[in-house]
Specification:
Layout: E1 8-10, H1 22-31, H2 37-57, E2 64-65, H3 73-80, H4 95-103, E3 105-108, E4 116-119, E5 124-126, E6 133-135, E7 138-139, H5 152-162, E8 168-172, H6 174-180, E9 182-183, H7 195-212, E10 216-220, H8 230-245, E11 252-256, H9 266-269, E12 276-280, H10 288-294, E13 300-306, H11 316-327, E14 335-339, H12 358-361, H13 367-385, H14 394-413, H15 420-427, H16 440-451, H17 468-479, H18 484-505, H19 522-525, E15 529-532, E16 539-542, E17 545-547, E18 551-557, H20 564-572, E19 579-583, H21 585-590, H22 600-620, E20 625-629, H23 644-659, E21 667-672, H24 681-687, E22 691-694, H25 702-710, E23 715-718, H26 731-742, H27 763-783
Parallel strand pairs: 1-14, 2-8, 7-9, 8-10, 10-11, 11-12, 12-13, 13-14, 19-20, 20-21, 21-22, 22-23
Antiparallel strand pairs: 3-4, 5-6, 15-18, 16-17
The protein binds glutamine and zinc ion.
GO molecular function, one term: zinc ion binding
Binding site for L-homocysteine: 461-463, 629
Domain Cobalamin-independent methionine synthase MetE N-terminal: 9-328
Length: 784
């Protein structure tokens, strides 16, 4: 070992699913009974080995273990500590029980078992402000914890050790774990109260890791950067004091934060008895000086300079400036260069992107390329400091720095990125472009007359069943087995059939069915300039599910209309109003990899202008009901409350910019897949959509209470039935639900519709459900 002080590199977590989604295939095969348990276990181990070896070959010093899971790491934490809700306790322990918690179980409790169970899955929730979803721990006041006999964290550490790789175990800290949990049942119980019962089990786990030979432990406490209360502050203090008191002298705890800044939390953090701190310097580089001022002298500081959750290269010059701030104040051996957060949120490798435009590809770095960036950055500092031979030569490093500089210079000035026309339009956006000229109360009656709408109008959210035939035709078309014209003819027929069925059922405002779309963002991304698509850029969304978000790399504009042909064709088939269907600017932004060279706000504005053009073209083509879906507005909320207002200002402005150019008689709808509006209600009102359709059927009147409390002024369609279930709702239950709505909303402003799009259902269910929905409409038209 060199005595010279050198800088180490660290990865906070590596994607688990495999570069060809091997793990997804194994697990789903296991669920389907096609892969047996030993094949699953072996396949999973092979992936871990591959991932560790790959990181080692790139020269990473602190390679994570314990970042691998068959479903979700928060679920693993619950499982390892024995926090298994009662409803799963009769299911055989091991994979059957674990997967039942993850996904619910209907049928035999385990393969070949006589016992039949029917248990829903545990709740899933978004992991901070990412598009990953974790399984929410369910904890009650009586909860006890018991560390499992063979915690996976210890097993994986040993597994890597046997390969000659000394890893850094990663665990979710006790305070964040409890803050991620919810109270089981309906109680107001605060899971954080369970801390004293949980800590002894954490201590046991740490002891086992020490015994196995671990040194650095990465303890993730992402909640440290979020809004805190005296109770959470006290919890961190007592938790880390307790763990320190029992800590093996060979262990060192690296307190790990990400997604938020902690310079304003240092009064608390610097008192915690740990050995180091990790910062997300990609999201919040400005926190570094404040943290350095207050960091205990003997702590290690891990500098998260390589973005773990986006696909852009790291600009070395900027990162080096930042690292220099730290090297000026601390010796190299007390500093670590790291990914900003786990690479879970990055796709694997650019090596599989054989079709990506080479100019744009040069600007990107996926997980493996990020490993290379860490190696280069550490080399920059280590070569100067050490007389010992280094893994990288100076000339190699110089070449990498030079190439990086060239790449950024090219990106900054590329005509692909900067579009002067778009810039010019943005500069000309005026305040009157983000407000409808006439108030709702005046325009709504005009719309009703124009569209000849009855009382309690019925509609749907947009998509109709994406049947096997539809998906197969799309696949054949993509593979070149079906000509563009044949594919189009097929879609036209599907659309026509969909219109006829809606007419037959008696729906008032029809939709074309969205058969031509495979995804509500990708469809528009493919038609806008400024977007590219990857072949293999998969990232985990939840469990085994991965998504392949499109990449926004440049100024957005719309060369041609995107949906007008489909809507006009569908309208030509019927005299009923046909609703145009668009995805809103904030949702396009949220569900894409976005540019890091301009604020999200600006990208949203560009998207809004493109959608505004589409709205105008639809209106000109005679479509006078237009829905702009914004299911992602809520998930864009910043992690700290103090920043909500600023976000909601630009997010709602973007929606308004996309929707406000229309005449009074054109009716704007929007749709959201949730009903948790309590804390964002004024923003929803300010969107000023004529009609908002929302998820409601699963949410015990929460939404209606919010509507009632704040008095929503515009028309709304709270979903009358749950589309996530194959059940056909009866007329009676929809009557009841509507009657309940009428206690809160004026009858003149209510629309009848399902909760969300129908693409995952089959036609038989859809037809039966919608017939019942129109029966409910008929019933209430007679009553009012
Ligand atoms: N219009 C879309 C559909 O019906 C909306 C999807 C969504 O809300 N996520 O499928
Ligand atoms: Zn929805």
């Amino acid at each position: 070992m060199s005595a010279a002080a050198t800088l180490k590199s660290s990865v906070l977590g590596y994607p688990r699913v495999g570069n060809q989604r091997q793990l997804k295939k194994l697990i789903e095969g296991f669920w389907a009974g096609k892969v047996d348990e030993s094949a699953l276990v072996d396949g999973a181990r092979a992936l871990r080995t591959q991932h560790w070896q790959l990181q080692r070959s790139q020269g990473i010093d602190l390679i994570p273990s314990g970042d691998f899971t068959l479903y979700d790491l928060v679920l693993d934490t619950s499982y390892n500590f024995g926090a298994i809700p009662t409803r799963y306790q009769t299911i055989p322990a091991g994979l059957p029980q674990y997967f039942a918690m993850a996904r619910g179980l209907q049928g035999a409790a385990a393969k070949g078992a006589d016992q039949i169970v029917d248990v829903p899955a545990m709740e899933m929730k978004k992991w901070f402000d990412t598009n990953y979803h974790y399984i929410v721990p369910e904890l009650g006041p009586e909860q006890t914890f018991q560390l499992t006999a063979e915690p996976s964290l210890v097993a994986h550490f040993k597994e890597a050790k046997a390969l000659g790789i000394h890893t850094k175990p990663v665990l979710i800290g006790p305070v964040s774990f409890l803050l991620l949990a919810k109270a089981s049942g309906e109680s107001d119980f605060q899971p954080l109260e369970l801390l004293p019962r949980l800590l002894p089990e954490y201590r046991k786990l740490l002891a086992q890791l020490a015994e196995a030979g671990a040194t650095w432990i990465q303890v993730d406490e992402p909640h440290l950067g979020l809004d805190s209360t005296p109770a959470t502050e006290a919890a961190y203090k007592s938790a880390y004091q307790y763990l320190a008191d029992g800590l093996s002298p060979s262990l060192r705890l690296l307190l790990t934060t990400y997604f938020e800044r902690v310079d304003d939390r240092m009064a608390l953090i610097s008192k915690l008895p740990v050995h180091g701190l990790h910062l997300d310097l990609v999201r919040h580089p400005q926190q570094l000086p404040g943290v350095l001022d207050q960091l205990p002298a003997d702590w290690v500081l891990s500098l998260g300079v390589v973005n773990g959750r986006n696909i852009w290269k790291t600009e070395f010059a900027t990162a080096i400036d930042l690292i220099n701030q730290a090297t000026n104040r601390k010796p190299l051996n007390q500093l670590v260069l790291a990914t900003s957060c786990s690479l879970l949120h990055s796709p694997y490798s650019l090596e599989f992107e054989t079709k990506l435009d080479s100019e744009i590809k040069d600007w990107l770095a996926f997980a493996n390329e990020k490993l290379g960036e860490l190696a280069t950055l550490t080399a920059v500092f280590n070569i100067q400091q050490s007389a010992e031979p280094q893994p990288k030569r100076q000339s190699e490093v110089d070449a990498a720095l030079e190439a990086n500089k060239r790449s950024f210079a090219a990106r900054r000035t590329s005509a692909r990125v900067v579009n002067p026309q778009v810039q010019d339009r943005l500069a000309k956006v005026q305040p009157d472009m983000v407000v409808r000229p006439t108030p709702f109360a005046e325009r709504y009656p005009k719309q009703k007359a124009h569209q000849k709408l009855p009382l309690f109008p019925t509609t749907t959210i947009g998509s109709f069943p994406q049947t096997k035939e539809v998906r197969q035709a799309r696949l054949k078309f993509k593979k070149g087995e079906l000509s563009a014209e044949d594919y189009r003819q097929f879609l036209l027929k599907e659309t026509e059939r969909c219109v006829r069925i809606q007419e037959d059922i008696g729906i008032d405002v029809l939709v074309h069915g969205e058969f031509e779309r495979n995804d509500m963002v990708e469809y528009f991304g493919e038609k806008l300039r400024g977007y590219v698509f990857t072949q293999n850029g998969w990232v985990a969304s939840y469990g085994t599910r991965c998504v392949k978000p499109p990449v926004i790399y440049g100024d957005i504009d719309r060369p041609n209309p995107m949906t007008v042909d489909w809507s006009v064709y569908a309208q030509s088939l019927t005299t009923k109003p046909m609703k145009g269907m668009l995805t809103g600017p904030v949702t396009c932004l949220q569900w894409s990899f976005v540019r890091d060279d301009q604020p999200r706000r600006v990208t949203a504005q560009q998207l809004a202008l493109a959608i505004r053009d589409e709205v105008d073209d639809l209106e000109k083509a005679g479509i006078s009901t237009i829905q702009i879906d914004e299911p992602a507005i809520r998930e864009g909320l910043p992690l700290r409350r103090t920043e909500w207002e600023a976000y909601l200002k630009w997010a709602v402005d973007a929606f308004l910019l996309s929707s406000c150019s229309v005449q009074d008689t054109t009716q704007i709808h929007t749709h959201m897949c949730y009903s948790d509006f309590n804390d964002i209600f004024p923003a929803i009102q300010r969107m000023d959509a004529d009609v908002i359709t929302i998820e409601n059927s699963r949410s015990d009147l929460k939404l209606l209470r919010a509507f009632d409390r704040y008095g929503y002024h515009n028309a709304s369609g709270p979903g009358l039935y749950d589309i996530h279930s194959p059940r056909v709702p009866t007329v009676e239950e929809m009557n009841e639900r509507l009657a309940a709505l009428l206690n809160y909303l004026p009858f003149q402003l209510i629309w009848l519709n399902p909760d969300c799009g129908l693409k995952t259902r089959d036609w038989a269910e859809v037809e039966a459900s919608l017939r019942n929905l129109t029966a409910t409409a008929g019933e209430f038209r007679r009553r009012y």
